[in-house]
Specification:
It contains 14 helices and 16 strands. It has about 375 residues and is α/β, with parallel strands linked by helices. A seven-stranded parallel sheet has the order 3-2-1-4-5-9-14, sandwiched between helices. Strands 7-6-8 form a three-stranded antiparallel sheet, with no helix packed on it.
Length: about 375
């Protein structure tokens, strides 16, 4: 008998791709999703690429919220495994929509676990989508003090265009290192803090209830199917929408800030490997590319791919809560899941841009987002 898998947030970018792959593998898939207008648009049944993918599949769809206990109970009925992806995801937005981010990410997860602790169910495994955001600035090396974990950058330095991290002990310069799962938790945003709480709740309760659980700390996921209308998250989609509207790209800081961009197919394969194996049970695992790519390089490559004449402006603007650099140490992913990324950034970006070229051009809402954050004192 095929396993029945529930994916919360399964109509979203990562969830829909996982759902399609699991269906192809013969699993029965149920999706619980609220169809947030910020992600799916005002008419998700017609406008959302990822949701239309689900509609055309054999997945069972339930429109509901993870903050509603009855919706969870309906969705969990008869399921064998849960992939819990539903969450609010904008780092900057989380700094002023604090109640909303905690309600969805923390309370939504708490309701799931409360049901599993107190009511009959058949759940045999839980996977929760965590985030590299829990590390904050991540791991560095100081010439005097060895491996260190810098504090969040202070606004006084950022205002002087001093963007690099400092040693938390001597305030000296530090060298970026790959961040491993044993690194300290130092989230710099409410989003990061909520993901830290989310993953710890799942692992603690999973162990107490003898339900194997895994927290995947996804890096910056991108690829075909990503929302092009959400101005709060997904730098590749935000830049693409700006370029498609022939609007200039605003590069924050000095453009040298970097991220670990991981292609969606690699994320899908890593997640399913955890679902099907017991090697990573009760562990936290990084899923990324293992490489850092700076934001200016991203913008230049996107402009070239789209043959755009739009300007790329390095403005020195910065957002409170942003980190400087990051890339993941993938040692545990390889050890426990035999996970090795199959797509380089160049290959993945090309596939992403080919897909974007086939999509309807979305309205560029980035200026509204900047104005909103500026009014809160979070964008300088």
């Amino acid at each position: 008998m095929n396993k029945k898998i529930l994916i919360s947030g399964g109509a979203g970018f990562i969830g829909s791709n996982i759902a399609v792959k699991l269906l192809q593998m013969g699993f029965e898939v149920t999706i619980l999703d609220s169809l947030s207008p910020q992600i799916h648009g005002k008419d998700p049944y017609n406008d959302s690429f990822t949701f239309k993918t689900i509609l055309s599949s054999d997945a069972h769809f339930i429109k509901g919220s993870v903050t509603n206990r009855d919706d969870w109970k309906t969705a969990l009925n008869g399921q064998d495994m849960v992939i819990h992806l539903a969450a609010e995801t904008g780092t900057g937005q989380s700094m002023y929509q604090i109640e909303k981010y905690n309600e969805v990410n923390v309370i939504g997860t708490a309701i799931l676990l409360d049901i599993l602790a107190n009511e009959p169910h058949n759940i045999q495994k839980i996977i929760v989508a965590s985030s590299r955001a829990i590390y904050g600035e991540g791991k560095y090396k100081c010439a005097l003090h060895g491996h260190v974990y810098p504090e969040a950058r202070v606004e006084a330095d950022l205002a002087k265009k001093d963007f690099e991290c400092k040693c938390p002990i001597c305030s000296g310069s530090v060298t970026l290192m790959p961040t491993d799962e044993q690194s300290l938790y130092k989230p710099t945003s409410i989003y990061g803090l909520s993901k830290q709480t989310q993953e710890q709740m799942v692992l603690i309760v999973g162990k107490a209830l003898n339900i194997p659980s895994i927290a995947f700390r996804y890096q910056n996921v991108y690829g075909p199917g990503q929302s092009l209308s959400n101005p709060y998250t997904g730098i590749l989609s935000i830049f693409s929408t700006q370029l498609k509207n022939n609007n200039p790209i605003n590069i924050f800081e000095d453009g040298k800030e970097s991220r670990d961009f991981v292609f969606i197919d690699d994320v899908v394969n890593g997640t399913i490997a955890g679902l099907l194996s017991n090697e990573a049970d009760y562990k936290t695992i990084n899923i990324g590319s293992g490489e850092a790519t700076d934001v200016f390089t991203v913008a230049k490559q996107l402009k070239k791919q789209y043959n755009s004449d739009a300007d790329i402006k390095i403005t020195g603007n910065y957002r409170v809560g942003d980190i400087r650099h990051n890339y993941a140490d993938l040692t545990l992913a390889k050890k426990h899941l035999n996970f090795v990324p199959q797509y380089s950034f160049t290959e993945g970006l090309s596939l992403f841009c080919q897909w974007v070229n086939l999509q309807e051009i979305q309205n560029d809402k980035s200026q509204n987002t900047f104005a909103e954050m500026k009014s809160k004192g979070l964008f300088k």
